[in-house]
Amino acid sequence: MSTWVIKMKVKILLIILIFSSIVFAQIPEIKISHVSYGSNPSDVYLTISNPGRVPDPNVKILVDGKLFRTVSEGIDAKNAIKVHLILPSGDHTITVESSNGASDSIDIVIGEALTLTEEPNKTGWKPGKRDIIGIAAIILIFIAGIAVESYNMNVQ
User: Fold this and answer.
1) Which of the pair, 40 or 106, is modelled with greater confidence?
2) Which one-letter DSSP state was computed for residue 73?
3) Is 72 part of any domain?
4) Which of 7, 11, 38, 148 suits 70 as a labelling partner, its CA being 20 to 30 A distant?
5) pLDDT value at position 14?
6) What is the DSSP string of 15-42?
7) How many separate domains does the chain show?
């Protein structure tokens, strides 16, 4: 093989490597990077991040395969947003899709809110056995103190 053919093959190989690295560097990415819950059991907060180098101009949030919300402001490259969802109790699959074709999904379980089944104690504090013993001991010490003081006054 001539040196000219070898040089051309090396140049073509370098060009292919350079363009393939540019193409792979431009792959869109999207990720559900954090899930938290609010004080209400149905409040769900998602942090959706774009770790890639391509901005996502339009992000769709799907719950159980149905479109729940569209984030039209999108997510810039190397950035994240926080989204608040209110979901009913049960098992859910949350999927995030970008307009660039990237997606991520998670499975979560939302529990039911507990309800109070009986009336709260409206009378307030009810003393237990230890409380009654403690109160009786304080009263006895107080009476003994008065008796000692009264004895001391009579003796003088």
Assistant:
1) 106
2) T
3) yes
4) 38
5) 74
6) HHHHHHHHHHHT----EEEEEEE-SSTT
7) 1
How many angstroms separate the Cα of 115 from the Cα of each of 87, 112, 118, 119? 18, 9, 9, 11
Name the pLDDT band for 91 (thresholds 50, 70, 90). Answer: very high
pLDDT more than 90, % of the chain: 25
The answer to the question of residue 102 being in a domain is: yes
Mean of pLDDT values over 139-156 = 80
In contact, 34 and 46? CB cutoff 8 Å: yes
- Domain range for 98 is 28-110
**Would 92 be classed as within a structural domain?**
yes
**Would 115 be classed as within a structural domain?**
no
Rg (CA), the chain: 36
* Positive or negative torsion for Cα 98, 101, 104, 109: positive
CATH of the domain at 53: 2.60.40.10
